Amino acid sequence: MVIVVGYAPGPPGEAALRRGAEEARLRGARLVVVNSSRGDALVDRRFAQAEDLEQVERTLAAAGVQWSLHQPVRGREASEEIVRAAHEARADLIVIGLRHRSPVGKLLMGSTAQSVLLDAECPVLAVKGER
Amino acid sequence: MDLGPLMEGFATAATPMNLLYATIGVILGTAVGVLPGIGPAMTVALLLPVTYSLPPTSALIMFAGVYYGGMYGGSTTSILLNTPGESSSVVTAIEGNLMAKRGRAAQALATAAIGSFVAGTIGTALLVACAPIVTKFAVSMGAPDYFAVMLLALLAVSAVLGSSRLRGFCSLGLGLAIGLIGLDRVSGQPRLTFGQAELADGIDIVVVAVAIFALGEALWVAAHLRRKAAQIIPVGQPWMGREDWKRSWKPWLRGTAYGFPFGALPAGGAEIPTFLSYITEKRLSKHRDEFGKGAIEGVAGPEAANNASAAGTLVPMLSLGLPTNATAAIMLAALTGFGIQPGPLLFQKEPQLVWGLIASLFIGNALLLLLNLPLAPAWAKLLQIPRPYLYAGILFFASLGAYAVNLQSFDLVLLLVFGLVGFMMRRFGLPILPLIIGVIIGPRIERQLRTALSVAGGDVSTLWSEPLAVGIYVIIAVLLLWPLLVRLLRRNPRRPRFKDA
Q1: How close B36 comes to chain A (CA, Å)?
Q2: Whether A43 and B81 lie within 8 Å, measured CB to CB
């Protein structure tokens, strides 16, 4: 059994990670953490760096689940990478984090969560970050 | 020294409209300085068509703001991302980024911004002092002298800067060839027009500059978009402690002393003085062990040097009409576009423009300090813009600008052709600067040559009839034969050692 977690540094991503770890422990599943960047900006804050990854490692070690990290940078949207990873691993569940978006922001940048919900082949669990 | 004209200049620069243009200039300049690959030269080229409807003084004030702003902005990227925003801040990146990694990003940004301000202000004051003297001297120069000085500038830019002389001269040759296109001014014969009526007027410098800088760079980035997401080092408000001030002020002054004269020389540029300043600070520092780990002196000196060299560049540009870097070259093209003849008479004929421009440099520098010191983290956010959006915008403005110059679609074809030339030049490592300087100085050096020859009735020896010209030819000879001389000089001291052994 495999669970895919869409992770990005920040409260929603961390909430998704914690919930994903919890589900993995309950179901005895393996966790695949996906964190990607389109890589076309010089700086991408949503691409996890060493410090964030240490945090991820601590969280998952505490949960005691088997996990792997997937950080592709190949010009694709994060939603596409998550759905693709889930397809390849034949995942049973995808866990993502949600955050509040302004209508304009959503119009301009699109919504990763919405694309994952609509495109995924398996059930998607969406959690909110701490306010 | 008479400060009257400068005060009148302040009166010109401080009108609300000109202040507005200065502000727009420094904001744009900082933004393009922060973004790697997009520099003040490209920005000024893109702004050229827009500014033809403005009064020349306002336009030049804006350009000067962009030029100075680019120098400030470049340091932010160097320090926080270790990617120099401009070639002149390559050296800053060495120690600056190491400081940031040690958690001293705030101090590095502060010493860069304050050092730039100090150097920019001193440099501009030196410009006020030097330019009229050079002008007085330049008025007495004849056509043969001018020909020699321009030749020196062309050769120096091609041979001294950049890694390969051959590539420099290839680029210069391309530029001179582009500059030849059009009707011969004396005989009216068409040159290199290939029978195209549209080419008879020559190629507008706006089209060439926009194509080489904007289109060439956009194509290059499109072909080589690096798929890499870096993270910027988080930073709060830039500030400096007492110790930092103590360690910074001497490097600032020494950096200024290096930067200004190098900027003023025909082959100056900001790369050599920033590097020299770095080496000097490394040698003189009491904290030599900190170099290589993030020493504040290694940021303060080079940053001051690059801003002082920006001020120095304006000395030959305003007093001789001689540009020594790409941005100055395009500012000079703008002057010509306004129907103003650059050269030593500029100070007499256009005092309002020249002194207004100089006064605006003082104002722009102060504005830049205010913009950069508290807002450096905000500027760094610009790096999160996906580059495809950025270059799409640049291409849009490039095409609009190239079309707007003469409102003929033929210019768009030219834009594309020269854009491809710009791309190929980047592909094969040809420097851009000699081409731009060649296009701009080429027709002017030809005019001086023609004038000199027609005054002397076609006698070629007139070219070396004046002592100044002869002196400059000697400098040119040394410059071109330098690698050979170095080899000869190195060989001699070695011989005794062989005997000992």
Answers
A1: 9
A2: yes
CB contact (8 A) between residue B225 and residue A42: no
Tokens for B177, please give them. Answer: 């060839």
Question: In this structure, what token pair is assigned to residue B353?
Answer: 């423009």
Can you point out the beta strands (E) in B176-318?
182-183, 190-191
Euclidean distance between CA atoms A129 and B430, whole angstroms: 52
- Answer whether B209's CB lies under 8 Å from B436's CB: yes
pLDDT of residue B501: 37
User: Helix (H, G, I), strand (E, B), or coil: what is residue B262?
Assistant: helix
Would you say residue B160 has pLDDT above 80? Answer: no
Which position has the token pair 């945090």? A55
Confidence bin at B496 (pLDDT 50/70/90): very low
A40: nearest CB among B35, B81, B388: B388
Per residue in B385-396, pLDDT (tens digit) is 888 888 999 999
Phi, psi values for residue B183, rounded to 5°: -75, 140
Structure tokens at B100: 């940031």
B240 in reach of chain A (CB within 8 A): no
Encoding tokens for residue B14? Answer: 């401080």
Radius of gyration of chain B (CA): 23
Cβ–Cβ gap A44/B229 under 8 Å = yes
Amino acid at B244: D
Whether the full predicted model's pTM is greater than 0.80, yes or no, is yes
Please, which residues have CB within 8 angstroms of residue B166's CB and are 6 or more apart in sequence? none
Q: Tell me how many degrees the CA angle B120-B126-B132 measures, rounded to the nearest 5.
A: 130
How far apart are alpha carbons B442 and B172 in whole angstroms?
9
* Adjacent-strand bridge partners of A125: A95
Tell which CATH classification among 3.40.50.620, 3.65.10.10, 3.40.720.10, 1.10.3860.10 matches the domain A2-128. Answer: 3.40.50.620
**φ, ψ of residue A2 in degrees (nearest 5):** -130, 140
Report residue B332 as tokens: 């000079």
Q: Is B216 in contact with B51 (CB distance < 8 Å)?
A: no
Q: How far apart are CA A92 and CA B500, in angstroms?
A: 81
Domain boundaries, chain A: 2-128
Kindly report the nearest CA distance between residue A46 and chain B, in angstroms.
9
Residues of B in contact with A47 (CB under 8 A): 229, 231
Residue contact B384–A47, C-beta within 8 A: no
For β-strands A2-6 and A30-34, DSSP reports them as parallel
| Cross-strand pairs, A93 | A3
